[in-house]
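Entry for the shared binder. Reason: the reviewer on the internal report wants the predicted structure included alongside the sequence.
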Amino acid sequence: MEGWRARQVARACDELDAEAAGWVDAKLAGVWGTATWPKVWRRVKGLVLQADRALALEKARKARAERFVRITHNGDSTSFLSARMDTGAALALQDAIRRITGRLVDEGAIDPVPELEVQALEELAAPYLPGIDGSFPDY
């Protein structure tokens, strides 16, 4: 194993006690040299969380506390949307956008895919857009 990779693994285990770090090391022994580095690194991160349940719970709590949605209006009839959300919800949103994008393509849309994905996201937001008469729905 290259030294820089060993240092990355050691840094990932910094917050663990010696016993938990040893457990991670033992679990990794079988994958060194048999798996790609990205696969090993994903395993390292998962093992570190498994090794110290309290650490895992604290990291999950911190990640939940750092969730947000930010919408910045650009003043040109467009807006910038960014969010930090639960991965499961983000994957569901991504899947919905892909399904709607696929439907738009099947219906003959010829816009580039990124533009179709924006249209799909806008379609998901459609229940919250003003009605034909300019009124907003009750929330």
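Summary line for the report: The two ends are 57 Å apart (CA to CA).
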